[in-house]
Amino acid sequence: MQAQNETGSRTISARQAIFSKYLTFTLVDLMVLNFFPEYWDKVTITSFGVSPFCSDYFTSTTKNDLTP
Fold first, then answer.
1. Number of domains the chain contains
2. Residue ranges of the alpha helices (H) in the chain?
3. 62, 40 in Cβ contact below 8 A?
4. Does any domain span residue 23?
C-alpha cells in the first residue's frame, strides 16, 4: 500500500515514475514502429516478435530522457 500525504493523494516513488515513463515510451515506440510497415512499402518487419526488441532498443538509447 502506498503512503498518502496530507491531502489524501498518493505519492509516487522515483522508481515507479521511471518505470511508468519507460513503459509508456516503449509502448509508443512499438506503436509507431508498427505503423511503418503498414503504411510505407519500403519498411518490412518479418514478424511481430521483432518489433518489441526494436522498440526496447529505441527506448533504451533514449534512457537519458527518461530519468527524472
1. 1
2. 14-39, 50-61, 63-66
3. no
4. yes
- 19 CB-near residues (< 8 Å, 6+ apart): none
Do the domain assignments include residue 51? yes
| Residue 5 pLDDT | 65
CB 58 within 8 A of CB 29: yes
Entry pTM: 0.61
Is residue 9, in this structure, part of any structural domain at all? no
Residue 42's CB is within 10 A of a number of other CB atoms, namely 6
In the chain (68 residues long), the average pLDDT of successive 10-residue segments reads 66 86 84 80 77 77 63
Count of residues making up the chain: 68
